[in-house]
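Protein Record: Sequence and Backbone Structure Tokens
======================================================
Tokens: labelled as protein backbone structure tokens, with as many entries as the chain has residues.
Question of interest: how does this chain fold, as expressed in backbone structure tokens?

___
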Amino acid sequence: MDFGALKGSAGTENDAELIKSSSTSGFAKDVLDASRSVPVLVDFWAAWCGPCKQLTPVLEKVVKSYGGQVRLVKINVDEHPGIAGQLRIQSLPTVYAFRDGRPLDGFMGVQPESAIRTFVDRLLGGESESDLDSVLATGEQALEEGDLQAAAEVFAAVLEENKQNPIALAGLASCYLQTGDVVRAEQMIALVPPDESNVPAVQRVKAALELARKTVTLDDSSALEARLQADPADHQARFDLAVALAGQGKKAEAVEHLLHIVQHQRAWNEEAARKQLVQFFEAWGFKDPATIDGRRRLSSLLFS
């Protein structure tokens, strides 16, 4: 079917069905069930978020122009934090695309109308796009399991067909990064087109690269531990030690030190400990045990 020919046609559904606000309790019906018929974009926003107010009208305009081929559901994360928590939403605005009851792709931050149309066009690409999603999922699974060779082969194969695929570029960059080749990881992530830079997989690699750069100069953890023993209230030493430990793969210990700072002096250095924890979580990925435990404990501290 020629989706392009339908793009400008009159909508088959009224605006109330195409664009609606939903809640935690309505998410299954409005998003998961609805996405089995047509793709559904989910706009996570908040009233205090200026960029959200810029993005939402553009999303609505684009969705209406597709004449019922795609829907938009808006979730206010302040009023309905449950779904945002499950999807590990860490910045606003964030948009996820759902199809067949599962999230496929997404982006963060304000995007130009042209980029959103490209995103929707890709989402409506039909079976070939589903096949690509499956291939990329295979590569990401191999990466999670530590099979870097298999993951690299999958991502490289995708890039042979589409040299600018952001998920494949991010995946290959992550493979390089996990082997310690920071330079090649940076070169790979630099190939991501600017309008795809907010794809979650790309953001995770960028966070991991930033963390890797920090740890280069913080490899002498013994001196930091000595400072901390002499003065347990030395937050800078504790912070630097956490970064050094993270660079050594000691994630749980790194999280512990930063949570200590948040608990005892949350506002220290403009909430540097909380911000560093968020960067850790982005770099490690949403499924990492240290991320899951750290996010839970951080939330308990912040909202206690």
